[in-house]
Amino acid sequence: MKITKKYSHYSGEEYLIVHHKDIYNEVVNAIESIECNAERIFATSFVSHEWIRRKSEETTNDYVKNKVALGFYFTKDSLTTFNSFASHLLRYYISEIDLAIEVFPTKKMQSQMSSKISCYEEEIDNISKRGRENLPVPLLILGVE
């Protein structure tokens, strides 16, 4: 897979590069080494790098390492994605995380998938509509193909 789009909300990417460059590189390298879009492959790749899986009602797959949350959205609809962002907000306020990385298929990749799932472009649009104040968590949102 290839990262084709990035959106840094509240300087999420910049914070990651300055404070967690090793995690940033690990995420980028893991994504680029994956040859298909199966969420299970993402999960396996990150668990082997000591990411801790957090399973809750708000989100089905969410991983945390060194106060960085990581989520993949290849089988989830918009409501699940919104709940995941709410979960990040709660974890940010209780200082469990400093920022979150979210990985979405791009619109181009979404069109080749069988189910209607959230895509990068839709999530960026949703964040823009909500306004910065409604999601005060630093985020790095990646669009992949």
Structure described in brief:
With 145 residues, the protein is of the alpha/beta class. The protein has a single domain, classed as Restriction Endonuclease, CATH 3.40.91.
Tags for this model:
145 residues; alpha/beta; Restriction Endonuclease; six-stranded mixed β-sheet; 6 helices
Question: If you compute it from the alpha carbons, what radius of gyration comes out, rounded to the nearest whole angstrom?
Answer: 14 Å
Mean pLDDT: 80
What do we call the CATH topology? Restriction Endonuclease
Strand content: 15-25%
The main β sheet shows up as: 6 strands, mixed
Written as H for each helix and E for each strand, in order along the chain, the element string is: EHHHEEEHEHHE
The helix content is: 40-55%
Query: If classified by CATH, what would the architecture be?
Result: 3-Layer(aba) Sandwich
What are the low-pLDDT stretches, counting only 5+ consecutive residues below 50? none
Counting DSSP H or I runs of 4 or more residues, the number of helices is: 6
Strand order of the largest sheet: 1-6-5-4-3-2
User: How would you classify the helix and strand content by structural class?
Assistant: alpha/beta
Count of individual domains: 1
Indicate the overall shape.
globular
What is the CATH C level class, in words? Alpha Beta
The CA-CA distance between the termini, in Å, is 6 Å
Could you give the count of β-strands? 6
